[in-house]
Amino acid sequence: MSAKIYCTASFKPKPGKEEALFKALQALEPNAHREDACLLYTVTRHIDNPFAQGSSYPIVFHEIWANRAAFEAHCQRREIRDFFATHLDAEDGDIEDANVCVYSDEPLTYDAPKL
Hints:
alpha+beta, 4-stranded antiparallel beta sheet, 4 strands, 29% strand
């Protein structure tokens, strides 16, 4: 059974706050990379491209974690909780809206080997 967790966190900054929010998210990367179960933790920004014309929030965090417990432990770190309290929950924060989702790469009917 695949234990990996994929997290996509999309952020809509308040007007004029895109660069400040991007930098605040970048500041989270170094400590997340220190976590043993962090396989990928990268903040990205939307770019225009004629081959990908979908719509999304302008800033997206891509995360891959070795397992669910590691992802959930990461979410409970003080630095992460403080980020959301300061930038999303606070009235003067930089985030207008956020959409954080987690995914598995395991098919519903996968007959995972028992180890």
